[in-house]
Amino acid sequence: MLLAVPARAQQAAGEATTPEAAAVKICSGCHGMQLVTDTPRDWDAWHDTVQKMIDRGARGTPEEFDLVMDFLFQNVTPVDVNHADRGLPGVVFVPNYFRPQFQKHRGAVCGGVELLVTDREAFRSYRTGVELLAAIHRLWPDGFAWRAAPYEFVADIPAIDLLTGGPECRQAIESGAGLEDWLATWGEDERQFRAERREVLLYPEADE
Ligand code: HEC
Prior knowledge:
Blueprint: H1 19-27, H2 33-37, H3 43-56, H4 62-75, E1 91-98, E2 110-117, H5 125-139, H6 159-164, H7 168-175, H8 180-184, H9 186-197
Antiparallel strand pairs: 1-2
The structure holds heme C.
């Protein structure tokens, strides 16, 4: 027989269980919380700062420090992903972090965003993908690189150009000009494609 013990019952007395409680408990011991909330920084910088505070004597369980990172990432980062309004329909971005068990970042805590599709009819997966690329390039230009290895046996055209159908997407992102001009060309392409495929559809499209 298995005996299920609720996780909470195993927690040490007084252990903080919410991001805010953990941050207040661990980070307001030596200075006020205002020092923490006044200085937004990104994931890596918070990671370094918290390590510095541990060196100075900040103490808590690993779970509590995970919660502290949650708090910092959700409340004190310069990038508020949901309010960096690109008008992307049907999706919200939720801060998240995890420790991969395999491949190149194995064992390291990685921060990122989780995409939650809230309306599958409205969601534009491809547009969301290229917007993400543009945002990552803008936020972390130094760590950004396009895939340079041959893609699908094609070596003389960058993989991203093959995937997006031409150099427009890559050039818009690299130049910092933004995606607007390129996006503006999609409507006509989409209209043509819809017309072209109409005769092979088994069921009519809802909006036709
Ligand atoms: C054991 C004492 C102690 C605890 C606990 C502590 N700090 Fe600090 N913290 C300090 C000291 C001392 C300074 C000022 C020295 C400095 O600025 O280098 C400081 C400064 C800071 C600063 C401003 C300086 C900087 O590096 O940007 C930030 C931000 C900060 N702490 C964040 C935190 C966070 C987040 C936590 C919780 C994980 C925390 N601190 C917990 C001792 C502590």
